[in-house]
Amino acid sequence: MASTIVMGLSAEYTQAQDQLSGVPAANPKTAGMVAPNILTPELEQIVWASGATKLENPTDLIGFYGYNNDGPHMPAPGAVQTAGSTIEASKTEPDKNTYLVLHGQTGPDNHYDYGSRFLFQGHEGGKQGYITRINLEADGLHRTTLMADKDVEGKPLPLFDGSTWYPWAQRLLFTAEAGKNGGVWQATVSYPSAVEDISGIMGRGGYEGIQADAQGNLWIVEDAGGRSGAVNKNAKQPNSFIYRFVPKNKHDLKAGGKLQALQVASKRHAGPIVFNPDDPDGDILSLDVKDLHSYGVTFDTKWIVIHDTDVDGFVPFDANAAAKIKQATPFKRPENGVFRPGTGFREFYFTETGDTNKDTEAGADFGGFGGIFRLAQKNGSSDSWRLSIFYKGGVAHTGFDNIAFWSKNKLVVVEDAGDTLHTQRNALDSAYLFDVNTDYTNPAIQPLRILAQGRDASATFDSPLTDGRPANGFQNDGDNEITGIHISDGDDSVHGLLGARNPRPFRDGWRVFYTQQHGDNVTYEIIPAKQMHLHDHHQWRDDDD
User: What's the CA gap between 465 and 292, in Å, rounded?
Assistant: First the structure.
C-alpha cells in the first residue's frame, strides 16, 4: 500500500507507523449503498450510545440520545419529504466529547449508583440544544442522562458544538457555532446541570473549538463561513478568527477579562493580514492567503485585545465584528485546536476546513482545501508566537475538523468533508494519524489513515434528501462524519488539561472516544483489537516511553 512505499523516506515517519498499519483507502460513496467503518487492524470499537438510545429522563421534545420526539426514527414506507411535512424525527447530532472521572455524581434515580466515569457532550442539531452524560459504568436503563436543556434563566439552550473541562472553576464549557447568536456557556457537572450564558464576557461568534492553557486562558477557534466570490464562485473569503480569553479570575469566569484575537504580520506589505469587506475575490486569491498556506513560511503574530470587560462592560457583543475592526487575521474556517503535550502549552495546532468543494478556485495553494497550522511560542517568557502551515490539505485530505494528540508526537485529525465533496471525490471521511516531527512538504509522504468512515443505513437514506434543500424542507444532514475525537484519562484537576501530559491510549486510564455523527449518531470507544493482546505493553510502546 502507499503508506508502506514511503516508510523509508523519513525516520520519524517510520516511527509513526511502526505500531498501526493503517487503512489503505477511504470508503467510496456509492448511491444507495451502506458502508461499514474500517479501522486499522490493531484497533476495534465498542458502542456506548446511539441516536436511538433512550434518555433515562426524557422530556416531551427530547427523548433520545440522538433524536427529538417529532417524528419516527425512519420514514414510513412510501413517505415523501415535502416542505412543511417532515418524514422523520429531527436528529440532534451529539458533538464534541469530554471524558471525566468524577466521584459522588447523581442522576434522576436517587437510588442508583452512577459510578465515576462519564462522557459529556452537547448536541448541535434538532429543535434545540441540550447536554447529555453517558454513564460509562451504568446499566442500559441508566446509560444516558439528560443533564440540561435550559439555562438558569429558563431559556432553551442553543445548539452546541465544542466542549471542554475548565478545572479552576469546576465547569464544563460548551460553545455554540451560531454567529451573532453563538458564544460560550458554562455548566456544572452535578445533576441537574446549572447552565449559564457567559457570552457577555467572551463574546458571540461562530465558536467551536475551546481549550484551556496552564495559565487558565481559553483558546477559542471560530468556524464562520465567508462569502463566495463574484468570480471565484466555488471559493469562500476567509472569515474566521483565533481568539484567546484572559480571565480576571480563573476560579470565576463571570468576573470578566480580556478577549484577544490573533493578528498575523504580512510578508507582502507593512502591517497585518486583514479582512477586506468589499473585496471577497481579492481576499480569496490574495498573496497573503497564499503565503499562509505555503510550506517554509513563518509569520510573526501578536494577540490584540478586542474586548475588555473593565472598559467595555458585560453586554454580549459580536466578537467576529470586533476582530475585524481591530485588524485581526481571518482564516478559512478553522474548527478546533489542541496543545502539543510536553511543550508547556507553547505549541498549539489548529485545523482549517477550507471550502469543502473540489471545484474551489482557491485550490490547495490558496487554502481551498484547508490544512493544519502550528502556532509556537518564540520563547518561554515572551507572548510572541510564530505561525506556520504544518500540513497543506488537498482533495484527498481536506475538511479537517476535530483534532487530538494520540501521544507526544502523534496527532489525530478527522475529516468533515461534507456530502458534496464526498460525491466529487468518491470518498467518505477518514481519520488520519500525523507525526509532528515529519516533514510533509514531500508529496510522497502522507498521514496514516487509521479509520475509513463508513455510512450507515440512516445516513444513506438521508443523503439524497439533502440535495433537495431548502425547497423540500428536509431538516437533517446526510453522510456520516467523524466528530468528537477525544483522548483523555479523565483527570479533573489542572494536571488533566489536554496538553499537560503525554497521552497514553489504552494505558494508565487513557481512553479514546469519537462519534459517528449524522445518520444513527453512534458514540464509540476505540480499544485495542483483541488479537493484539490488550496487556502487551510493547505493542503500544510510543515515543513517550
Answer: 37
